Amino acid sequence: MKINVHEPKSGIHSLKFRIWFTFIAFALVIVMTLWLFQVVFINGYYSSMKEKTTLSAADEVKQLLTTYVNDEDTLNTQMYAAANKYQTSITIINESTSERSTYPFMPEIAEDGGGGRFDKFVVKSAVSETLISELKNEINANGNGEVIKYYEESSMLIYGGSLTLNGTTYLTVVSSKLQRLDEVVGVISNQLIIVSICLVLASFIASILIANRVSRPLNKITEKAQLLSEGDYDVVFDERHRGNYVEISKLAHTLNYATNGLKQVEKLRAEFIANVSHDLRTPLTMIKAYAEMIRDISGDDKEKRDKHLEVIIQESDRLSELVSDLLDVSQLQAGALAYDPSVFDMTALVEKVVSRLDILCERMGKHINVNTTESVYAVGDIKKIQQVVYNLVTNALNYSDDSTEIDVAIEENENDIKFSVKDYGRGISEEDLPNIWDRYYRVDKEHKRSVAGTGIGLSIVKSVLEMHGTEYGVESQIGSGSTFWFKLNKPEEGEDEE
Ligand code: ADP
What we know:
It is built from twelve helices and twelve strands. By secondary structure, the protein is an alpha+beta fold. A five-stranded antiparallel sheet has the order 2-1-5-4-3, sandwiched between helices. A five-stranded mixed sheet has the order 7-9-10-12-11, covered by helices on one side. It has a two-stranded antiparallel sheet with strand order 6-8. α7 packs antiparallel against α8. It is elongated.
């Protein structure tokens, strides 16, 4: 049977596309982050770093000046060292004498220790008179004694601060050159273009490879599952394909398991249909044959006619029993029958079932012994429990072979009641025991009219007892008989019999 279900279309929702898209998006995010930090933000980052160094240099200059204001030689050496350390030029102006000392940043001086040789060397630096008066004005306007400014045209970052020591005011100027980064940024940009292209290309290729590796086995599984859905139960899903991911192997394993289950059900179903058609055909043939006999032969002979009619009635009963069994099992399995519990007398129920089987017992030469006549109350769905008892007792009759006795027992325990039915017939082998509760399962596969059965009686028993949530089971030994049993809850105090 081919089931037509709406098949999802591949496209933007496919696994392949998603993996590919994620990879490319990830690569683009990385490329963009690189561009932002290496190209867009670099100027801002560089200036703020320079500003920090300049301020640190200014702090050190103030400290040195305070410490060595009276020791000119040490002051000079230390100032040169500071200028080199922070890569800045330092200028100190004594405001009362207008004496100016400049310590420029000169890397080659730093190497041989610096200091001394350039004493009071007046460098024509960015620190011009106009600049100095401008700085002074700003410091005064500022009120906190210092100012830091960036001069666009000379690319200089200049700090100015005033410091008063022993009544003399000094103006300290620290100037750092801001390098033009355009050239560097240009080089980085070129490199970034290459890196970006490589990155996007690499992720494109990697994503396609990975997506294929994931989707190929999935597609294979889908193809086979399609075959399965078309009724081919011989498909085998590839569990150990080299390079498969564990999850996919697990999926394949689960599908193989499901396929085996389906195969089994299909086999049992085929057997069941064979059994049922046989079971239906036999009574029908009998009914037809006896009806014809009445028409052609025994119509006027009352005694014979009644005998023939009796057969017809029996066979019709058998037919309707079979059909109602089939209905019950399908309804139970579909969960269509509701659980309707009440308190009832188990002994009375068993007696009712046994009396229904009186004629059959007589004909088969069997005898059913019930251990008690006293009322034993239980809680359950009375109609369904009746069916369970009926199925178990008829099974005991059907499979007891030459033995004549069937023992039915109702025991009352502290918390529950236990019903059991024991026969002394053929018993069930250990390997069949776990399967007898399955739908359509029959130990004796050959169909014998003497034991009419469809293999659904015990599956009804199982469904009903599971619906009740009670324990049930069977003990059996091949050759010496079986005991089928189940338990039911006792009514709680206050619960009344209906
Ligand atoms: P059936 O209609 O064939 O009796 P059931 O579901 O009632 O179907 O039972 C399934 C199988 O279990 C039977 O075919 C039979 O082989 C085995 N079985 C059930 N009850 C007994 C029993 N009391 N003794 C031996 N075998 C039994």
